[in-house]
Design brief:
mainly alpha; 13 helices; elongated
């Protein structure tokens, strides 16, 4: 975590209490947020609203790109980005109104309770794992995705994400324009193969491996 951002980690017990408070009083951000967090909220919202947000997948892409733009890996380390406690804080204290707009008032999983369904976390990781050098290139590879595609992509870490591999999968999927059912089969096959084989250990193995994943689903 970058030292100049005061992200306050929330335990599961604290998150449950805060979520209950939001349900009772309304899903509004805390009124005592530190100035740097207020600036973060303002910047993320401005970026989020600058793009299309009509559909759920539009909202996923837009929020992911907005968060990643303001909290890239040189500001939010990957270790911090994997810490649910920080995402609970952002979901429950900083952006509860926007998480609510994408979910519902009883959707605990989207706010804090389910590791890979915390909406802000999954959208940040969606962008990180599909990153193609810039926001425009990343938006392009995600253009035809569905919410199911997102779930398949971010909810199958196995023994840990191989970032180069996931980015190459996103790139190949964009090239082949697989539908969500085909892409689900690609990710299931990838999960099974990674239990015994790691193509990310060599760049020479990576491209042939990804091509073979998609060839096997044709």
């Amino acid at each position: 975590m970058t030292p100049d951002l005061k992200l306050r980690p929330l335990t599961r017990a604290q998150s449950a209490r805060r979520f209950a408070e939001l349900q009772e009083a309304g899903f509004e951000p805390r009124d005592d947020l530190p100035e740097d967090i207020q600036r973060l909220r303002k910047a993320v919202i401005a970026s989020y609203l600058s793009g299309p947000t009509k559909t759920e997948i539009d909202q996923d892409r837009a929020m992911g790109l907005a968060l990643y733009g303001e909290l890239p890996p040189d500001k939010l380390t990957l270790r911090s980005a994997a810490d649910d406690r920080l995402w609970r804080y952002l979901s429950l204290d900083v952006f509860p109104d926007y998480v609510l707009a994408r979910s519902s008032a009883d959707a605990e999983a989207w706010f804090w309770s389910s590791r890979w369904r915390i909406w802000l976390k999954r959208t940040w990781w969606l962008i990180h794992l599909s990153w193609q050098d810039d926001a425009a290139g990343t938006g392009k590879v995600l253009k035809h995705w569905t919410t199911d595609s997102v779930a398949q992509f971010v909810e199958r870490p196995g023994r840990g994400f191989r970032v180069d591999l996931w980015r190459r999968i996103a790139q190949e999927n964009a090239r082949r324009k697989f539908n969500q059912n085909q892409f689900r089969r690609v990710m299931k096959l990838n999960t099974a193969l990674l239990a015994t084989f790691d193509p990310a250990v060599s760049q020479e193995l990576l491209d042939p491996y990804v091509v073979s994943l998609f060839d096997n689903i044709q």
